[in-house]
TrEMBL record:
Highest taxon in the source lineage: Bacteria
SUPFAM superfamilies on file: Actin-like ATPase domain
Organism: Rhodovulum imhoffii
Phylogenetic lineage: Bacteria, Pseudomonadati, Pseudomonadota, Alphaproteobacteria, Rhodobacterales
GO terms (BP aspect): FtsZ-dependent cytokinesis
Name of the molecule in the record: Cell division protein FtsA
Cross-referenced HAMAP family: FtsA
SMART domains the record matches: FtsA
Biological role: Cell division protein that is involved in the assembly of the Z ring. May serve as a membrane anchor for the Z ring.
Length: 444
C-alpha cells in the first residue's frame, strides 16, 4: 500500500474524532476561491444512521456556524502549484471561519477539482451459501470485483456500489435480508493522480490541520445541486469553476461517471484581458457586470467603459460595445461546452431515462449560458443552486458554493462508508488485482 493509502486509512478515524467533538471544517480548494464552512453536528456519530444507499438531501444533522471565502492563491486547474501561497490562503480562510464560529477547528474535510479524474465500472458476484443475503455475502460480492489497471501514479478516490442484483432481479439498493441464490454488484470507481492528493494533504498538514476526508468537487456539486428526482432518473451536473469544469453523471442516486475539462471561467476572463488589453481584475469586473453570451439588437449601442490608470487620457477613456464583449466570451464558452458534450457522449449519457443537465459553479452565472448550453448539449438544461442547509449565510447560497455545500452533505453521510463490511479472509480472491473493495474496506 502506498503512503496515500495509509493516509486515507487514518482519515476515517479522523472523521470519527471530529464527529465525537461535534465540529468539523469544510474546505473547498478551487482555482478562483477558497471557501471554508464550519459545521456543528447534533450527535456524536451520524455516519450509520441510515441503512443502505439513500438520498443525501434532507438527512443532514448539522448546522453551519462559520463561513468564509477568500481569493485562491497558488492553485491552477484545481491543483496546488505554489505550496506556500496556498498554505497562507488556507490559514487565512480557516481563521476567518473560526472567528465567525467562535470555535477552534482541528479537522478538515476537503474537496478539489483537478487531478484528471477517470471513472471505471466494476462487476462482481458471489453464490450465496444460504438463501438469505447477509453482510458477509455483500462484502464477498464487493471483494470479487476485478480491479482495473488504473495506471502508475494514480489512486482510488471514490468506490461505491451503484446496483445490486439478486438472481434475475436487478436495481436493488440494499439486498440484505432478501432471498436468492446469486448476488451480483456493479461498482463505480473514481481514480485521480496521486501526487495531487499528496500535495493537498501535505499543504493542509502544514496549516496545523488534520485531513478527515477528501472528495471530488464534481461529485459533491452534483449531490448539492441535483434534486432527488434528477438523481434518481438520471442527470448530469456541470460544475463550471475557475480553472476546471467538472462533469458528473448520476442515476439511482449514485454517481456513475465523473470527468473534468481543464478550462473554466478564468479562461474566459483571460480572453477578455488579452483582447481588450486590460488587467486581469478589470477583465473580471467587466465579465461579471457586463458579460453575456446572447447578443440582442441593443448590444451594439450599449457601450462599456473599460477604464484604466495609465495616465493616458485616450487609453483610460476607452469603451467597448457589449456586442464586442459577447463576441470575445462566447467562443471560449462554446469550446468548454463542446468538450463537456464529448465527455457526456463517452459516458453514454444519451441512454439515461432522465437526461437532465444542471449547470452550477461560479462560471454558470454568465447570462445566457443556459441557452447556449441547450443548443450545444441538446438536452434539457437548467441553472442549479445548492440546497439550503441550516445556518448557511445568504452570501454562501449561490452557485459558486455548490461544492462547499455538497461537501457538507458528504461529511454527514459519506456513501463510501455505508458498505464497509468485514470480508471473511477465506473469501478474498487469490489474485492481487481482484481486491477493489479490499481497498474500499481498508481505506474508508
Amino acid at each position: 500500500m502506498s503512503n496515500l493509502y495509509q493516509s486515507q486509512r487514518a482519515m476515517r478515524r479522523m472523521r470519527k474524532q471530529a464527529m465525537d467533538r461535534g465540529v468539523v471544517a469544510i474546505l473547498d480548494v478551487g482555482t478562483s476561491k477558497l471557501a471554508c464552512l464550519v459545521l456543528r453536528f447534533d450527535g456524536s456519530d451520524r455516519l450509520r444512521d441510515s441503512e443502505g444507499v439513500g438520498p443525501l438531501a434532507g438527512q443532514s444533522s448539522f448546522r453551519v456556524i462559520g463561513a468564509a471565502a477568500l481569493r485562491s492563491r497558488g492553485v491552477r486547474f484545481g491543483e496546488i502549484t505554489a505550496m506556500q501561497e496556498t498554505e497562507r490562503a488556507i490559514r487565512t480562510v480557516v481563521q476567518r471561519a473560526q472567528k465567525m464560529a467562535r470555535q477552534r477547528v482541528d479537522h478538515v474535510i476537503a474537496c478539489f477539482a483537478g487531478a484528471r479524474p477517470r471513472s471505471y465500472g466494476l462487476e462482481g458476484g458471489v453464490d450465496l451459501s444460504g438463501h438469505v443475503v447477509k453482510e458477509e455475502d455483500v462484502a464477498s460480492a464487493l471483494a470479487s470485483c476485478e480491479m482495473p489497471d488504473i495506471g502508475p501514479g494514480r489512486e482510488v478516490l471514490h468506490a461505491q456500489p451503484v446496483n445490486f442484483a439478486l438472481d434475475h432481479r436487478t436495481g436493488l439498493s440494499d439486498p440484505r435480508g432478501q432471498i436468492g441464490k446469486r448476488l451480483s454488484v456493479d461498482m463505480h470507481l473514481l481514480t485521480v493522480e496521486g501526487s495531487v492528493i499528496e500535495n493537498l494533504i501535505y499543504c493542509i498538514k502544514r496549516c496545523d490541520l488534520e485531513l478527515a476526508g477528501i472528495a471530488n468537487s464534481a461529485y459533491v456539486s452534483g449531490v448539492s445541486s441535483l434534486v432527488e428526482d434528477e438523481q434518481e432518473l438520471g442527470a448530469a451536473c456541470i460544475d463550471m469553476g475557475g480553472g476546471t469544469t467538472g462533469v458528473s453523471v448520476f442515476i439511482k442516486k449514485h454517481m456513475i461517471y465523473a470527468d473534468s475539462v481543464r478550462m473554466g471561467g478564468r479562461h474566459v476572463t483571460s480572453d477578455i484581458c488579452q483582447c481588450l488589453q486590460v488587467p486581469f481584475d478589470t477583465a473580471e469586473r467587466i465579465k461579471t457586470f457586463n458579460g453575456g453570451l446572447v447578443a440582442t439588437g441593443m448590444d451594439d449601442r450599449e457601450m462599456i467603459a473599460i477604464g484604466g490608470e495609465t495616465g493616458d487620457y485616450e487609453h483610460d477613456r476607452r469603451t467597448v460595445s457589449r456586442a464586442e464583449l459577447i463576441g470575445i466570451m462566447r467562443p471560449r464558452v462554446e469550446e468548454i461546452l463542446e468538450d463537456v458534450r464529448a465527455r457526456l457522449d463517452a459516458a453514454g449519457f444519451e441512454y439515461l431515462p432522465g437526461r437532465k443537465i444542471v449547470l452550477t459553479g461560479g462560471g454558470s452565472l454568465i447570462p445566457g449560458l443556459d441557452a447556449v448550453a441547450s443548443r450545444i448539449l441538446g438536452q434539457h438544461v437548467r441553472l442549479g443552486r445548492p440546497l439550503r442547509v441550516q445556518g448557511l449565510p445568504q452570501s454562501a447560497t449561490g452557485a459558486a458554493f455548490s461544492s462547499a455545500v455538497g461537501l457538507c452533505l458528504f461529511a454527514a453521510h459519506p456513501q463510501d462508508e455505508w458498505w464497509d463490511f468485514a470480508v471473511p479472509s477465506e473469501r478474498y480472491p487469490a489474485t492481487s488485482l481482484r481486491r477493489a473493495v479490499r481497498w474500499f474496506r481498508d481505506n474508508w
